Amino acid sequence: MTEPEFMATTAALFSMMNPIGNVGIFAGLTEGYSRKEARIVAIQSAIASAITLLVVVWTGGLLLKLFGINVNELRAAGGIIVLMIGLHMLFNKSEHKTSVSETQDAKEQTSIAIVPIAIPIVAGPGTIAAALVSAEHSPDILSKIEISAAIIALSLLVGLLFAFARPVSERLGKSGMAVVTRIMGMVLVALSMGMLISGITALIPALAK
């Protein structure tokens, strides 16, 4: 994996995981928790997110072969998914996260670390698609190790920010987090176009002429 490809993969994963923009959601879901309980949930959600994405990176190719999907089809489909999520983030809509009923149900659960915080808020369909496309585009062991390192580093960042969610969300405020979400949305829209175009031109070579 070249340095530009690694940077693009890391940027896509960071934008999809959106650790800063999701701080407010985490703070809302853990409202009423003690500081210690909230930090335990933050650590658990970070670990669950990392495990989910690492499993995708190292075993996702087997699932693609099982269903007869090639990397170009995945890249095009992933581009569409990331584009839709990026547009939702750009206009600061919540459809890419969870519905109102899902959020309310999550508050009533004993543990919310895995669902809905890790899945689908942090490691949602777009994040999984981005990780899988990158892993299949660069399937050698070294590239997968590099992607895994990026996932672990970003998951640590997620856990750290979530552990201090209340002071961070209070400092940024709703408008600050909305700005971060919109910026991440713009990055995703740009990255998704590259995924979509490269996938389509590989599937239909005539379009590349």
Describe the structure.
The protein has 209 residues and is an all-alpha fold. The chain is 80% helix and 0% strand. The protein contains 9 helices and no strands. Helix 1 (3-17) crosses helix 9. It is globular, with a radius of gyration of 17 Å.
Give me a quick take on this structure:
80% of the residues lie in helices and 0% in strands. By secondary structure, the protein is an all-alpha fold.
Keywords:
209 residues, 9 helices
Write the layout of secondary structure elements.
Layout: H1 3-17, H2 23-29, H3 35-67, H4 71-90, H5 100-107, H6 113-122, H7 125-137, H8 141-163, H9 165-203
Order of helices and strands: HHHHHHHHH
Based on the coordinates given, report the CATH architecture: Up-down Bundle
Outline, from the CA principal axes? globular
Euclidean distance between termini CA atoms: 26 Å
The number of helical segments is 9
- Average pLDDT reading: 85
What is the top-level CATH class? Answer: Mainly Alpha
Estimated structural class? mainly alpha
Contiguous low-pLDDT stretches (5 residues minimum) are none
- In the residues, how many domains can be counted? 1
- The count of DSSP E runs of length 2 or more, i.e. the number of strands, is 0
Q: Do you know the CATH topology?
A: Growth Hormone, Chain: A
Beta-strand content estimate: under 5%
Give the biggest beta sheet.
none
Helical fraction equals over 70%
Rg to the nearest angstrom?
Answer: 17 Å
